[in-house]
Write a structure and sequence with these properties.
With 423 residues, the chain is of the alpha/beta class. The chain is 46% helix and 12% strand. The strands form three sheets. The chain has a seven-stranded mixed sheet, with helices on both faces. Strands 4-5 form a two-stranded antiparallel sheet. Strand 6, helix 8 and strand 7 form a beta-alpha-beta unit.
Length: 423
């Protein structure tokens, strides 16, 4: 009895942070299994500690995967990475550096999902967290244009954490406007890329926004986690990518980051990073890996269509078009907090308070039960989701506890300022 109850709980648990297969097991890229078998029979393979700065071959190919092999930052030798323990390790390492060296506001803007995972890292280091979201619960769309509202009220030289930038879509003219606003207010960007390739099925396409800021001459940090993208969840494979203004600034920043990493974890995990380096350095294996990502995304799109069709056949009140207009592994259901609570307490369909579910946790075994449960929650609580105009915007009042922003060091701002202050 206990075993069957646990199986049921796992099947209707839509909270998981990993990609699942139709067979209800964690997804693993097929090319990874091939490389793992190859390494097991490689006489030169060993389990020695990596150098303190990690596996350089991994850092190089992972950084190229993020910014592009022919990126202007790579040509100018002003981008580099630090091998970390997962994405959280990259966030922690970057936040530690910013606490010690960043001469700017202590205010950090984060999306709710990101705050739940990494907010305490910044808070423990003395930063003030402000939430923002792209999801519009009234119009039932992801509105990345909301970022302009965030920047309008953000203190100068504050820190903006941009989560899962592959879903960030703006018209070209708005990109130009956005970069001008960020440069004017000297906003420091901290990208968080947890599952590159799971938005569009193409890792290069998923990073268009990040590469745009590289081309515009921005400096930033990026937490790059590759565990999800290859299915190596327990290997904790991360990379903190640094894009600096110059090679001199990069070397100085890397020196400090390496020092912090040395006492934070010493040597990072080796096996996963060796497998990824092997795959990305081999053109044929790289193509095979990209093909597996595309297959995952196609399955997710099919699941979106199936859930919407199930709700339509049940006659579930509300509009469900938003299920198929979103992208990536996760999707907002657009239901109310009371309806979420009904699903959790009455139907044991476990989803977060935000109503954002992991679509890969839905499969042929549980899709009917989940659709019927959503239908029941809507009928019991009501109403169903319907696009509508949002209420008038409320004025944003600055937090009186917000610390004063230090004065800029001459004409130099951001991370480059540490070259003047480090004496």
């Amino acid at each position: 009895m206990m075993s069957s109850q646990m199986t049921l709980w796992m099947r209707e648990n839509l909270l998981r942070q990993i990609c699942m297969t139709r067979n209800e097991i964690p997804w693993l890229s097929p090319v990874v299994s091939k490389i793992l078998r190859k390494l097991a029979h490689d006489p030169s393979f060993n389990y020695d500690y990596l150098p303190l700065n990690g596996l350089e071959a991994f850092v190089r190919v992972a950084t190229e995967l993020l910014v592009g092999r022919h990126s202007p930052a790579i040509v100018d030798n002003r981008v580099g990475g630090v091998h970390t323990i997962g994405g959280s390790g990259a966030i922690q390492l970057g936040a530690k550096f910013l606490k010690e060296w960043y001469r700017g506001s202590r205010v950090v803007y984060m999306q709710p999902t990101q705050k739940e995972q990494h907010g305490f890292i910044f808070q423990d280091l003395g930063f003030i967290i402000r939430e923002y979201t792209f999801w519009d619960p009234y119009r039932l769309i992801s509105d990345t244009g909301k970022l302009f509202d965030v920047l309008e009220h953000a203190p100068d030289r504050s820190i903006l954490v941009l989560y899962n930038s592959g879903s960030f879509i703006l018209p070209r003219n708005n990109w130009i406007k956005l970069s001008k606003v960020m440069k004017k207010k000297q906003i420091f960007l901290f990208f968080d890329v947890p599952d590159q390739g799971f938005v569009s099925g193409d890792p290069d396409r998923d990073n268009k926004i990040l590469r745009y800021f590289v081309a515009q001459g921005f400096e930033f940090f990026c937490s790059q986690s590759l565990s999800n993208s290859f299915g190596l969840y327990d290997e904790r494979i991360g990379n903190l990518v640094v894009v600096a203004m110059s090679n001199k600034a990069l070397l100085c920043i890397r020196s400090q980051l390496d020092s912090y990493a040395r006492y934070m974890w010493g040597s990072p995990p080796a096996l996963g990073s060796k497998m990824i380096a092997t795959i990305l350095n081999n053109p044929a294996l790289r193509v095979e890996w990209k093909r597996s990502l595309k297959g995952v995304v196609e399955n997710i799109m099919l699941t979106r269509e199936k859930v919407k069709e199930k709700l339509r056949l049940l006659g579930t009140p509300g509009s469900w078009e938003h299920l198929t207009t979103q992208d990536g592994i996760y999707s907002f259901l657009g239901i109310s907090a009371d309806q979420v609570n009904y699903l959790v307490t009455k139907k044991h369909v476990y989803i977060p308070k935000s109503g954002q579910i992991n679509l890969t946790c839905i499969n042929s075994q549980n899709i009917d039960y989940i659709a019927r449960s959503i239908n029941e929650a809507i009928l019991a609580i009501g109403p169903g989701p319907q696009p509508r105009e949002p209420p008038p915007k409320e004025s944003v009042v600055p937090d009186v506890s917000e610390p004063k922003v230090p004065k800029a060091l001459g004409k130099i701002s951001g991370l480059a300022a540490l070259l003047q202050s480090k004496k």
